[in-house]
């Protein structure tokens, strides 16, 4: 199958409550290879430093739902066979992956390549980007789950690169029986993931790639390397342990076995580029300095 | 004076013998505020992985001279009053600053904001980007110095952010009597630079900003943070110690005293962006994976 591949830009930042996601999405789009099919951008309110509101347990609930509906509308209009999503925060994959599970009639497999499980609920966080995979499986806040027409079956979901999480998250992934391959299990081989794909008879897979699955010593454009963070700001929070070559090998091994129909690249936070952009704007002759 | 400001893109990489400068220049141009005047790009051979030749003491001597002549031609054609240069390696400032010293009739002051003095000769290095300030003062290889119609007088040059260098470089800057303000002298005040500008009666200044003057803990898109370097690869080589706010304050303090007629931003090496670009190209669905 080749089919129509939609490139979908979603510069969403409110799901992680961090303005830098918006610029990170623009730079990610600039860095990406040219699209081979149609390109669409979901309208996202530009950050203006004014902050976001807590709305019944979720920061920016109403604007996130609005953007979610816009993404779903683009997907309905374009009816692609495959979708490349360039985020934005992790939540950007909610509408596209929900669309793909409809498109492939409940048979979509999801490989979640991430240092975090993204199955939190408003009881554990106010940031919707940490809830997205739960929502895709019909778990969590009703405003979000009701927008997933066909929830993805937990047995068709696997994590790659996940190795630790909070007690509440452990409880959830054990309750749902979600498979996982840790970074150490994926150092030399993609076998755990390939075996899972075979075991469920997967034909179509959507891959969520949160860039924070990569070791920040290799890629410093991620959440945990923000240059203004206190040294202990992220104590206890798992940070990525995979290398870029391991991620590339894993995704290509998967693509040899099953059709990759979805790929979301998320959580790009290019701190250096932001530093340089802001500095140039403040200098004489070139900026407003 | 307002006058005509030329934005000059020079994606030169051969002066530092590192292909990444070429991409760094493109990203720098993308990050910069919109130009207020004409924009020109100096044609530079695209890197293709084939390497460069040592030519009588200088790597890529002939192509560097060709690009230097092209830059000078653009400047002659445009005859701007001011120039913003977006590099590329440090050598990109040779033609523009030489042009400005002609334009301002030997009265240009040069502030060299850099962790390195850039006064080497082919006896000390084969990389022309480490020779550029020497060349501007008429020092060094004849092929380069003969292209500087009016050498800049050493008393009209000052360093900011320089704090250590090789014995040969010390000898040169002491022989020429070049002023300098170390990072520690510039922490809270731009006074050493302001006093120098007053002492020489400067009216027009060109500022060379090598991004490696900034502490790599603040800005990791510089030479010394390349992710594939061995831990001891840069032992003994000075790395920047200024902060971004200090650089911004210094340049704006200078601009309050004298007219900034030249600004070159150089040595942008966005390793993370390169990593992500290459990774996306290698992934299934979005790239050639």
Automatic annotation (TrEMBL), chains A, B:
What family does this chain come from, according to its entry?
Answer: Belongs to the arginase family.
Organism of origin is Neomesorhizobium albiziae
What are the entry keywords? Hydrolase, Manganese, Metal-binding
Q: Where is the signal peptide?
A: none
For this entry, the protein name equals Arginase
Please provide one cellular component term from the Gene Ontology annotations of this protein. cytosol
Keyword Metal-binding present in the record's keywords: the answer is yes
One Pfam family hit? Arginase
The record's InterPro entries line, in alphabetical order, gives: Ureohydrolase, Ureohydrolase_dom_sf
GO terms assigned for molecular function: arginase activity; manganese ion binding
